[in-house]
Q: What sequence folds into this?
């Protein structure tokens, strides 16, 4: 401490150097002090560097007309051409609109439904019933999108689709609706399919979070005469809030990941104006044209947007006094 | 204490794995740099030592070892060579892309439409000398075609599949594009002769009026396949209606040999107009632009569809289901429908040669001459006969004139997928060097193209229809294909990512977006919708480049150069 | 305590009853909606494939047959790939969860001087993708191609899992760790004796995530090990069957079929929908069975107090 004050008070010019030295000394001292924690994390940091950071050198290809046959050394540099192709395409704005809309819908619906389901499951009294419901609710997660898309499409069929039959019998509609033929319905249908497929799966983590809530709190509330809803709002929800906030921050970073298979499989000429998202665009003009550079450029664009949203969300959470990611 | 040790063990073992993973000496990944000279093939002596090559095929299929099939076993006994085949599972571009980038290839690759990438990477070895030395039969079978797949540098890098030798035999049953109609509709109207689109649609409407329901379900008068990559089925139709075969998205003038797109031309407008009216009158399937392939097949199989345009190979499973359902009037018959009287239909394919697909040997293959030797045996007539026809007496019979045919039992045996697989028909009938056309004895190379076989497969119900129209085979209703020495235009060497390729993608997207709207528009708005499409289509970048590229390609092909590139 | 509960319960019984009834009805509806796809898939898998084409199969097979399952199980590769699937799931989950938990523990320690650095270093990678080819080249240089370890090492740690475990450990009372430190426990002891056992629900959850992720993975098989039948997995076998279907997505194979078929003259080889369904059932059931085993860790809440005592 005295040392630091001394340094600060004397030669200002040398400050950075000395500071660096101090930083190094601090680092070494801390490393020795916390050698166990270091030992626990170091191997995995090395792993992280090798497997996640090293290959990022491949981003170079976003500025090239990369040909696998020529490799990085011999592929032609084209500057920002790939980015220009992406951003200047007539359809780019529409594609971005669809991407954002679908990912927002998925984000909101995903959180609300999964948390609701977890809470309601937790309120079930019969443990056997609870287990059964839980196991069944997560089953659709294991069907691949190819299968699910087939089910969705036949459920929505005009002729004998179960949804139309149901709505007609309930008297909600007079004429069957061609759900997949109306672009405006697409986002909603997609969101609903996503919920159907993954709500059970997504609720698992909240169930786990609920188990970490101290049971004594419930008992105390019960003695105080709190109703079920009160217990949900004053104990359960606050109890899982840190987890919810952290997951939300992480998912906001995935703002441009709106899914691919579901859109691709449910897309048709009638709804493509609403279904085509960034990933499908990149498939068509990148991969299908053997243009790996365009795919990489799109990936970098996504990363930049992700970081902006991630840091912003983290900041906001911090400002609001909530748990934060880092 | 014990836990501590466990932890240390874990860390150590994970580090160990790293070292193991990183420390191993680099495998022979440098093979990609090897420019693959074929000099080493001149060793002359050929070994018979057992060897298994890895054979990658860029389309979907069932993996199998060649020697698990009868034909493959036979060839293994003779040559000692076996192949482990691997069919594509995910995306072709990704798979070939990492192969090329990493320089790690299977021994033999059928790259399908990613062939440019393989050639660009010089992943295939030149075959000229190998063929000269070990592949005389291959050279003989491909003789007329060799120039077509010799690259500008004078080398042969791959063998295309199915060159037509001797005579071209059109298929007696329709496996290509046609307007299909439920046979009962024809019977009901007294087997009328149908030539034009108007006649065809009028007949269907008439029947639909009389039969609003079939088997208790709503009748679907007309539908079609438009889903995803099957969209070309819909967008190709105008070209067929105008009297052209499937040349892709261009029309080749028979006199000037000029290539023009037709998506914005009168024939397209006329077809869309007809569908627009059909829709306004309530005869068009509402789900035509919404169904996926499974939905489409289900609809066709249900027996309540009266007509649709489609390629025969697209709905094989539905056809089978209809056959098994046991009501022959619900099966379909193909009609050569044209736009108006006076147009000669060209639905049947002329002799075709796809020069830009094929199979090549990669720089990673050791002793590539052994693969050539294997292929050289496979391409010989007697082996090709085994692949295409099977074993005499078992899978087919020969009559006194030396013509091959199948008895009813043999028809059934050959139709059995397990039998085809175990014998090796499924494996070798495509993706391996093979021929098409006729054998030297005049029999068709492919059994299904032999009229005698087709006749044998017709049952009494089929004959009722054949007789009513005075036909011996269903293809007789169609005009003979005219000679198109450039056919098919779609196999032009389009470089991926080039202006031509981008135009093709953009144009298709535009058609996908507009065609359904035009068809489903209120008839009063038809003109306006159509004009909007035409304006957008014609203002696409690269339209002219696209047409010129195909015109040049055709011109080059007529001069014998099939390797024209932009 | 029990008595009080019962008394209180009686007083609010009307409220509770309404809530419970609605909840149970809702859950039953949910079960119906969720069970439908699976039962439908099972029904299709037990239906003759030529009949399935007609569509309209819902919960009961129309033309019953075991053939589709026979077909699936006669594939010689099925058993072998099942072994690989199990191995990669077990090993991948064991190593992965251990590693994630350890990293999570370090960044949950408020005093760890690299806490922020490690956290950010890991989190950023969630949003960065090097792309297929650079990743492939790295794995080639590490000699991972054609090796079982390509299933384990590159995906060893899921950042998402780290964060989830961390937030649970952070939720544990710090006093537990403090008193352990007083007793002279090092970080390893605190990790193994306190952090791990107390976050069992989250460890179970993360294990499930990793196990399912490992089980469902097919892309790494496709890219790295597709030429080695011994290293194939069940999920990859399923993808083979699915990509043989009409609904094949995203793949150039679809785009090319126009040409292949036009030229091959071979009628579309389509794996019947029924075989696809049978394969889906065979591949999914084993992993679905894992859940009930892990379930006990998060159905009944663990109380901190209970563990302490």
A:
């Amino acid at each position: 401490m005295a040392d630091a004050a001394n340094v600060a008070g004397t030669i200002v010019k040398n400050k950075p150097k000395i500071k660096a030295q101090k930083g190094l000394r601090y680092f070494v001292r801390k490393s020795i002090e916390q050698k166990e924690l270091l030992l626990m994390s170091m191997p995995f940091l090395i792993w992280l560097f090798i497997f996640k950071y090293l290959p990022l050198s491949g981003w170079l290809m976003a500025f090239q007309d990369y040909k696998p046959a020529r490799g990085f050394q011999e592929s032609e540099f084209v500057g920002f051409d790939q980015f220009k192709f992406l951003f200047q395409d007539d359809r780019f704005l529409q594609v971005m609109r669809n991407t954002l809309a679908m990912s927002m819908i998925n984000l909101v619906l995903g959180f609300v439904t999964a948390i609701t389901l977890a809470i309601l499951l937790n309120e079930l009294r019969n443990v056997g019933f609870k287990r059964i419901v839980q196991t069944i609710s997560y089953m659709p997660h294991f069907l691949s999108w190819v299968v699910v898309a087939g089910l969705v499409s036949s459920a929505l069929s005009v002729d004998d689709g179960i949804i139309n039959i149901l709505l007609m019998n309930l008297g909600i509609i007079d004429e069957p609706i061609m759900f997949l033929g109306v672009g405006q319905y697409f986002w909603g249908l997609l969101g609903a399919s996503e919920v159907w497929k993954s709500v059970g799966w997504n609720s698992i983590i909240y169930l786990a979070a609920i188990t970490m809530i101290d049971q004594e709190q419930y008992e105390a509330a019960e003695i105080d005469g709190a109703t079920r809803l009160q217990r949900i709002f004053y104990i359960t929800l606050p109890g899982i809030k840190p987890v919810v906030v952290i997951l939300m921050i992480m998912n906001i970073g995935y703002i441009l990941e709106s899914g691919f298979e579901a859109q691709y499989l449910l897309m048709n000429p009638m709804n493509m104006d609403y279904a085509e998202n960034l990933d499908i665009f990149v498939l068509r003009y990148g991969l299908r044209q053997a243009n790996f550079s365009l795919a990489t450029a799109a990936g970098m664009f996504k990363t930049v947007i992700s970081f902006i949203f991630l840091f912003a969300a983290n900041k906001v959470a911090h400002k609001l006094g909530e748990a934060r990611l880092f | 204490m014990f836990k501590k040790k466990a932890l240390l063990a874990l860390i150590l073992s994970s580090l160990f794995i790293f070292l193991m993973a990183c420390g191993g000496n680099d495998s022979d990944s440098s093979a990609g740099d090897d420019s693959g000279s074929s000099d080493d093939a001149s060793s002359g002596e050929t070994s018979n030592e057992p060897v298994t090559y890895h054979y990658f095929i860029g389309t979907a299929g069932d993996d199998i070892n060649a020697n698990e099939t009868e034909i493959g076993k036979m060839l293994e006994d003779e040559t000692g060579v076996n192949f482990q085949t691997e069919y594509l599972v995910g995306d072709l571009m990704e798979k070939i892309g990492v192969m090329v980038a990493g320089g790690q290839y299977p021994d033999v690759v059928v790259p399908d439409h990613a062939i440019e990438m393989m050639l660009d990477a010089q992943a295939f070895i030149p075959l000229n000398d190998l063929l000269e030395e070990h592949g005389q039969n291959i050279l003989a079978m491909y003789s007329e075609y060799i120039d077509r797949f010799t690259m500008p540098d004078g080398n042969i890098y791959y063998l295309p599949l199915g060159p037509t030798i001797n005579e071209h035999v059109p298929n007696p049953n329709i496996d290509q594009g046609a307007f299909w109609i439920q046979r009962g509709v024809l019977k009901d109207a007294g087997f009328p002769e149908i030539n034009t689109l108007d006649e065809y649609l009028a007949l269907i409407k008439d029947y639909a009026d009389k039969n609003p329901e079939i088997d208790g379900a709503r009748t679907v008068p007309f539908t079609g396949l438009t889903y995803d990559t099957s969209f070309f089925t819909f967008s190709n139709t105008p070209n067929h209606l105008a009297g052209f075969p499937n040349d892709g998205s261009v029309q080749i003038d028979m006199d000037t040999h000029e290539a023009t797109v037709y998506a914005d031309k009168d024939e397209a407008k006329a077809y869309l107009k007809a569908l627009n009216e059909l829709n306004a009158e309530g005869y068009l399937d509402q789900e035509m632009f919404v169904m996926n392939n499974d939905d489409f097949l289900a609809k066709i199989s249900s027996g309540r569809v009266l007509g649709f345009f489609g390629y025969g190979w697209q709905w094989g499973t539905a056809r089978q289901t209809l056959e098994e359902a046991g009501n022959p009037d619900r099966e379909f018959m193909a009609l050569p429908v044209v736009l108006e009287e006076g147009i000669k239909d060209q639905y049947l394919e002329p002799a075709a040669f796809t020069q830009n697909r094929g199979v090549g040997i990669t720089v990673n293959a050791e002793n590539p001459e052994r693969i050539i030797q294997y292929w050289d045996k496979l391409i010989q007539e007697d082996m090709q006969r085994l692949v295409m026809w099977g074993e005499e007496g078992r899978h087919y019979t020969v009559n006194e004139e030396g013509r091959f045919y199948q008895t009813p039992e043999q028809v059934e045996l050959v139709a059995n997928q397990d039998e085809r697989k175990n014998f090796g028909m499924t494996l070798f009938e495509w993706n391996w060097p093979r021929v098409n056309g006729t054998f030297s004895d005049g029999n068709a190379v492919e059994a299904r193209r032999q009229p005698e076989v087709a006749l044998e497969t017709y049952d009494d119900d089929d004959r009722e229809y054949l007789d009513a129209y005075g036909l011996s085979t269903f293809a007789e209703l169609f005009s003979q294909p005219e000679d198109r020495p450039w056919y098919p235009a779609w196999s032009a060497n389009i470089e991926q990512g080039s202006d031509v390729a981008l135009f093709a993608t953009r144009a298709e997207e535009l058609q996908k977006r507009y065609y359904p709207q035009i068809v489903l528009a209120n008839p009063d708005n038809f003109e306006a919708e159509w004009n909007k499409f035409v304006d957008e289509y014609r203002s696409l970048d690269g339209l002219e480049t696209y047409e010129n590229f195909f015109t040049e390609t055709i011109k080059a092909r007529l001069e014998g150069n099939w390797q024209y590139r932009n | 305590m029990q008595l009080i509960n019962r008394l209180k319960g009686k007083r609010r019984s009307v409220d509770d009853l309404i809530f419970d009834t609605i909840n149970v009805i809702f859950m039953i509806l949910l079960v119906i909606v969720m069970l439908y796809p699976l039962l439908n898939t099972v029904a299709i898998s037990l239906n003759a494939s030529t009949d399935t084409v007609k569509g309209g199969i819902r919960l009961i097979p129309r033309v019953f047959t075991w053939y589709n399952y026979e077909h699936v199980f006669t594939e010689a590769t099925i058993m072998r790939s099942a072994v690989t699937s199990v191995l990669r799931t077990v090993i991948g989950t064991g190593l992965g969860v251990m590693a994630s938990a350890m990293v999570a523990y370090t960044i949950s320690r408020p005093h760890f001087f690299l806490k922020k650095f490690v956290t950010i270093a890991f989190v950023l990678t969630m949003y960065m993708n090097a792309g297929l080819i650079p990743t492939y080249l790295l794995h080639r240089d590490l000699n991972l191609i054609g090796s079982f370890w390509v299933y384990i090492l590159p995906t060893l740690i899921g950042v998402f899992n780290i964060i989830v475990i961390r937030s649970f450990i952070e939720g544990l009372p710090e006093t537990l760790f403090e008193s352990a430190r007083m007793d002279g426990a090092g970080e390893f002891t605190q990790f193994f004796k306190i952090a791990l056992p107390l976050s069992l629900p989250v460890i179970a959850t993360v294990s499930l995530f990793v196990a399912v992720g490992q089980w469902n993975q097919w892309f790494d098989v496709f890219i790295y090990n597709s030429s080695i039948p011994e290293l194939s997995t069940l999920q990859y076998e399923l993808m083979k069957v699915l990509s043989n279907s009409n609904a094949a997505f995203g793949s150039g194979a679809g785009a090319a079929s126009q040409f292949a078929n036009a030229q091959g003259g071979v009628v579309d080889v389509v794996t019947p929908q029924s075989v696809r369904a049978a394969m889906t059932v065979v591949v999914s059931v084993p992993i679905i069975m894992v859940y009930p085993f892990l379930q006990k860790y998060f159905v009944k809440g663990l109380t901190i107090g209970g563990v302490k005592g």
